[in-house]
Amino acid sequence: MKKLDFKKWKNLRLQKVDPSKLDERTLLLNVYITQALTLLLAAILLWTQGRYVWDLLPLPSGLAPWLWGAGFAAAVIAADGALSRFVPGEVTDDGGINDMLFRGLPLWHIAVLSFVVAVCEELLFRGAVQHWLGPYWTSILFAAVHVRYLKHWLMTGIVFSISYGLGYIAIRTGTLWTPIFAHFIIDFVMGAIIRYRRNEES
To answer: N or C: which end of the chain has fewer CB within 10 A?
Structure first.
């Protein structure tokens, strides 16, 4: 049996990726692959809990869950708008990832991408992880995996707060569709703003 030569790997180093050196297609493909892995991890964790993805996705009856989601999303978007007026751009900078991701996408693709991200991430964090850890520690983990914001304490705190709010409305309404809907609206509106703001500037 051939032995592994670990000497070949001794100079292996993790390097920070410069978004300006990535093309848009590569970045978009990376997002979809990441979301597929997120969905797979969610399915595995749910299975260890004796639950399945489809158990969490029956559509709720009545308007209340959707109104909670829309209201929370509106509050987040309003807070983001206020923040952008008073906080320097470098504090909210994510390294140009969102700009590069959304600036060339048509509106329908922004909607599709936002929906995919909302479903996959909420199934993992609010569906599987929060079942074990509760909203506080789930939000710590959620903020930690959004590594592009970790260099700024303010943005890390905002991501934590949004995550905690998503966890709260999931518990409050008893359906995962509430945070999914809120997450979708937030990402879609933010993506559309980036898309059309960049077009106006160019």
So the answer is: N
